[in-house]
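ok so for the tutorial part 2 we go from a plain amino acid sequence to predicted structure tokens. step 1 is just haveing the sequence, like this:
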Amino acid sequence: MSYDKRQASVEFQRWSESYDRCVLQWLLFRPTHKAVLKRLEARFGERPFRLLDVGCGTGQFMERVRARFPKAEVCGVDLSGPMVRQGAVRWGRQFAHTLPVQGDSERLPFADDCFDAITCAHSFHHYPHQERAVVEMHRVLRPGGRLLLIDGNRDFVWGWFIYDVCVAAVEGAVHHCSGKRFRALTTDAGFELEEQKGHWGPAPFLVTEAVKPLDRPTIPLREPYRAVA
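step 2 — the prediction. this is what the tokens look like for a chain of 229 residues:
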């Protein structure tokens, strides 16, 4: 049985109220955020930049980006309206500098070439058509912009057991990509792969960093911007 967007929506609606308190925050999400912030610091330093977080949930990572990079503009998109609304207080604290949007990763509601960086952490395995999502990320990145894809590392026995056995038993037919699959998805979409790095621990994860070449064309905008009330 394949995993679809309806299943994802139901799952995250159910999870939205307890999301900020779940054990994965300290076990997986916070270590991931720390690793990604370090990479953003190395790439952008103190310069202003515009970032899109795909699968932003309640906005915890967006808030951490703003705390570390006060000159950054941060947008987030998530399929789950309840997740986005659950972060209302957090959005309010950063009202002038963050923009939460309910939307689909396969049809990102943003114009071509409008972000300097895109992050997608631990939501990619929920996307039924992962290749479409990566093409959309390529479209909305500016030439020279960076994509950081992060998900569970299932390329060795412990990771395979956690993600392909335990997580799949709870979440259904989700798909954690191998490192090879991430490389294929990014290069097929037109990115140049820069680095892949595994981070170890009780919940290991893999960071795939890729760059949109300066001379690579984009595809047309598919739908207008739509914000969440």
